[in-house]
Amino acid sequence: HLPILTEAVDLFGDICNNKVFQSSSMILFLNKKDLYEEKINVVHIGDQPAFANFDAKLGDADYYEKGIQYFLDMFMAQNSNPERQIYNHATCATDSKNVEVVFNSCKDIIMRKNMEEMGL
Q: Which residue numbers in the chain have pLDDT < 50?
């Protein structure tokens, strides 16, 4: 839904650039990938006015991936800290692998922070 997505991008920017979180790593979930996959089979992303610059063609073999990357780029463009590590995952809330993804991302965040503090 267009207004919800644009609001989510704006909210991510507000959170991402809040001084409280300025040096924090983040995990961005693009949820409901199952619904997205169904929808893009019948509706071209670029047909939505807010996404008119999306240039992939409906039916392309990599249309799904290009769409995910397009939306991910919208979120990532909100980040004003180029040194921030932002992990991203396209997910489905009922996917049991989500816990594993979060755990692995958190481990990586902690390891990177520890290595940084040790000067490595």
A: none
